[in-house]
Amino acid sequence: MKYWIILLIGWLPSAFAVELVQNTASRDYQSLNGEWDVIIDAFDVGDKRKFFTNTIPRSPSQLVEYNFSSSMKLQVPGDWNTQGKELFRYEGSVWYHRKFTVDKRKNKNYVLYFGAVNYIAKVYLNGEFLGEHEGGFTPFQFDVNDNLKGGDNSLVVKVNNRRESDYIPTMSTDWWNYGGITRSVKLLELENGYISDYSVVYGPGSDPAIKAYFKATGDYSKKSKVQFRVPELDINATVALDKDGKAEVIIPADPKLWTPEDPKLYGIEIAFKGREVVDRIGFRTVDIDGIEILLNGEPVFLRGISIHEESPKGAGRAWSEEDARTLLSWAKELGCNYVRLAHYPHNEAMLRIADEMGLLVWAEIPVYWDIQFGSEEVYKKAETQYTEMLTRDKNRAAIILWSIANETPKDEVRTEFLGKLVDKVHSLDPTRLVTAAINTQSTTEYGRRIDDPFAEKVDVIGINTYCGWYEDTPEECANYRWVSDYNKPVIVSEFGAGALQGFHGDEHQVFTEENQALVYRYNLEMLDNMKDLRGVSPWILKDFLSPRRPLANIQDYWNRKGLLSENGVKKKAWYVMKDWYEEKAKQPA
Ligand code: GCB
Question: Residue 326 C-alpha to ligand 1 middle, in angstroms?
Answer without folding.
Answer: 23
